[in-house]
């Protein structure tokens, strides 16, 4: 036999196991199971969508969204800062596109968010007069919740009203309107959008002190005769430090109030961070060690991520009767806000799909929780 041909045949045989291993360990995203099917009897599976995704310009995300999710939250386009152009003037172009996109892709909409101290229009932050501020507050809820009434399944009515110790945050809402603003926000949202589930949403509200504050808010609204349907636990957690015990205690405690629980912004930070939570105004200084995995996440951390997600979903499935939805804060790692917060320009790996839209080991470990 010709030496060249002989070498080619040998090479082919030698590489066969490798080729087979590669093809079986890395199936294309479209060939795998899907989250929404696997958890269809348990809870909705959502993702936060960026404007690029809503505009159908993120080619990596398009098939992943279609295949994997049955719920969506707008990452930014429904925030007051994006909707309100000046006093009384609104631009709903992007938010309307989001609603259309969700409808087209059979995604249940969780609208986010009506009342939040962050990402507010600049003029609203400057209002000192109580009556003017009350007008802005009430008109905003009426106009935005009213526009999407019947089109959204749930609203994050109030976002992040609590401090870590469970007291109410000194926001313009609290300072100008007093704690009654919480009752009023839910009442106005219900009047404008009566078929919609109304949620209070926060980060770290699985932690005991903040949880107590969150329970107090729910009770205050209920005792005033208001309608509150659920509590959102954002779920911005950290690799190897997910507070499983506190999460379970919180699911039970919120459910005991007669409200649903949603995990609304799930991601797991894998990069160095010197604080927990998701206070968007907080920043961290970059140093030589703050962006260690630019060329890939080490295998042991990839496995830890898979383990953390697996334990989380085992917990969620255990309490599926109390959980309405689990939403990831992003579709794939390339889109995650954690690439730019609290340090800009890092390479982060907090989600189930990688930068090419391929499922990561964490995806398979989540799917496998249903077989346990
Ligand atoms: C984040 C978005 O992901 C970023 O794109 C934006 O720059 C800042 O806000 N808690 C929330 C979300 O409720 O609205 C935040 O989203 C993340 C923390």
What is the CATH C level class, in words? Alpha Beta
What is the beta-strand fraction?
A: 15-25%
Q: Write the H/E string, N to C.
A: HHEHHEHEEHEHHEHHEHEEHEHEH
Q: How is the biggest beta sheet arranged?
A: 8 strands, parallel, barrel
Q: Structural class, from helix and strand content?
A: alpha/beta
The hetero compounds bound to this protein are: (3S,4R)-3-hydroxy-2-oxopiperidin-4-yl beta-D-xylopyranoside
Helix content: 40-55%
Tell me the number of helical segments per DSSP (H or I, 4 or more residues long).
Answer: 14
Give the spatial strand order of the biggest sheet.
1-2-5-6-7-8-10-11
Overall 3D geometry?
globular
- Mean pLDDT across residues: 93
Number of domains: 1
CATH third-level topology? TIM Barrel
User: CATH superfamily membership, which one?
Assistant: Glycosidases
- Residue runs with pLDDT of under 50 for 5 or more positions: 1-29
CATH architecture: Alpha-Beta Barrel
What is the CA-based Rg, rounded? Answer: 22 Å
């Amino acid at each position: 036999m010709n030496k060249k041909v002989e070498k080619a045949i040998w090479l082919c045989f030698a590489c066969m196991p490798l080729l087979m291993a590669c093809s079986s360990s890395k199936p294309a995203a479209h060939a795998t199971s899907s989250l929404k099917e696997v958890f269809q009897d348990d809870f909705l599976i959502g993702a936060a969508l960026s404007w690029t995704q809503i505009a159908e310009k993120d080619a990596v995300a398009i098939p992943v969204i279609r295949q994997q999710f049955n719920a969506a939250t707008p990452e930014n386009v429904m925030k007051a800062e994006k909707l309100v152009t000046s006093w009384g003037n609104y631009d709903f172009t992007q938010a309307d596109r989001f609603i259309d996109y969700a409808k087209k892709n059979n995604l249940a909409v969780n609208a986010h968010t009506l009342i939040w101290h962050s990402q507010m229009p600049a003029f609203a932050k400057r209002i000192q007069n109580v009556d003017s501020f009350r007008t802005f507050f009430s008109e905003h809820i009426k106009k935005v919740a009213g526009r999407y009434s019947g089109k959204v399944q749930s609203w994050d009515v109030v976002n992040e009203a609590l401090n870590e110790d469970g007291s109410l945050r000194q926001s313009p809402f609290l300072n100008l309107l007093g704690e009654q603003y919480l009752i009023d926000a839910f009442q106005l949202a219900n009047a404008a959008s009566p078929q919609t589930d109304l949620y209070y949403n926060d980060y770290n509200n699985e932690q005991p002190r903040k949880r107590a504050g969150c329970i107090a808010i729910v009770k205050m609204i209920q005792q005033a005769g208001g309608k509150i349907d659920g509590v959102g636990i954002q779920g911005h957690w950290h690799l190897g430090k997910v507070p499983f015990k506190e999460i379970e205690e919180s699911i039970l405690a919120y459910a005991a109030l007669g409200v649903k629980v949603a995990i609304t912004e799930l991601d797991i930070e894998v990069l160095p961070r010197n604080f927990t939570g998701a206070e968007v105004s907080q920043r961290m200084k970059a140093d030589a060690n703050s962006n260690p995995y630019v060329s890939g996440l080490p295998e042991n951390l990839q496995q830890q991520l898979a383990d953390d997600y697996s334990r989380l979903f085992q917990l969620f499935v255990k309490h599926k009767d109390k959980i309405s939805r689990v939403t990831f804060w992003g579709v794939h790692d390339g889109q995650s806000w954690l690439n730019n917060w609290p340090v800009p320009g890092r390479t982060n790996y907090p989600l189930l799909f990688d930068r090419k839209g391929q499922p990561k080991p964490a995806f398979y470990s989540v799917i496998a929780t249903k077989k346990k």
